[in-house]
Structure prediction request, 300 residues.
Amino acid sequence: MKKNKILIIEINQENFDALNNVLKKDDFIGEAVIANEELKKVNFGDGGYSLILVNADVDYVDIEEIVAFANTKYGTKVPIIYIDSAKVHDKKLLSKCFENGGSDYIKNPFDSKELLARINYHFHLFEKIRKCQEGLDQLANFAMVDQLSKLSSKVHIQSILKHQLNNYKRYKTPTSIIYFSVLNIDKIIGKFGLKVGEKLIYKFSQDLKNFIRKSDEVGRWDGADYVVVLTNTNLKAAEILAKKLKIQLGKADMLKGITPDLAFGLTTFRHEDDVQDVMNRVENALHEAVQQEYGKMKVN
Prediction:
């Protein structure tokens, strides 16, 4: 299996060829940059580079710029090895390379085995760090996304509510909450089974996501209960949206001849609120709406 690519920033083609011939011995793939025009064409964000080799004598790019190129989307940095051709070590250059994020430094002419050993060390270290960061990103995403509905998770909605409450108390921006439930999901699951119920929750959630404004946040709270966070929205506007939601989502074809039975609770932020206060109030509103004979919508 081919190893990832190594970007080689060199002064001339001969130097690149010499380095690339060494890299080929260990199945690395070298890509050359020997002028500023070529450097501008390099797609660092998606280039898939696992290491950068740099001739320390290049004059068409600053060392500081090379380090900026080395940053990846995962928050890790591609290792940089500087190669110095000077007969005597330039201590200022050496310090500058390491101060600006260099991972290693080697003299030219170099020993091929030593160069490959250094490259492999930094390559494998980078791969371990990258995989670790990817795993952390996946865990973070797993925590933020409800795996059944693919909407925001309860944990993420709680975080959003906390953030919006802080904004409300600072800027007095009206923010309202819609908390609603698909009341007949348990009956459907009891009759048709859990797998059917899970598929219906997913389909219903996608219909909900498509209907909600892009500026709003929607998440699955528990079971078939959902929370919609409406920023820059007072209670009157929230009621209008909730009525539209009730009509639109009430038409959803969950199963042949079965439509969702919905109930809604609404509230808005108050100055003394914390997240628990808001959720207690809107959950109570939903509970009262469920008890109603008509309308199934309550504002607290």
Summary: The radius of gyration is 29 Å.
